[in-house]
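Input record (one chain):
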Amino acid sequence: LKKSTKYLFSGCTHVLRKTLQGEMTMLWANAIIGIIQLIIAIILAVVALYIGFSVLSRITRGIDEEKELAKGNVAVGIVIAAVFFAIALVVQSGISGISVGISTALSVGLFSADGITAIVVAFVQLILGIILAVGAIYLALWILDKLTKGLHEFEEIRKGNVAVALEMAGVIVATAVIIQSGVIGITTALL
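The corresponding structure, as predicted from the sequence alone:
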């Protein structure tokens, strides 16, 4: 009985050790995947913010944002912050989609046709989300400009009108929240 208990305990210890080694390997693999996703997220966020700032320069009709910020124009700062926040909302949803795509690819085989398709679809979904966000923000600001005929928003922002900047920031953020739900819907439908 003593000998069989010793063998049983030894066998259980061996199985437990192998299980723990497998779990540690899986933990390291998950950690590496998480780091890769973080690096991708940082790169995409920087690119998206750069694109957003470039497009904002075209939308603001002649306002030199950098000079206005250097002068302390709070209204311009509010609008720029709203655009950055809006883009961050959409990119966050897209990064979530990329995480789902990578997880799907890992479960079906990273380099299999289905795995590659999942990753490509996730990136296309993110790029589409960014394009839709920038386009929708531009459209929303254009509509706002048409609705408020007596008020020239961009001229007011150049003058430092914080109330108008807050109005535009609200439109920008509200548009991004709506686009974010669409990006999440695309992720759900495609992946």
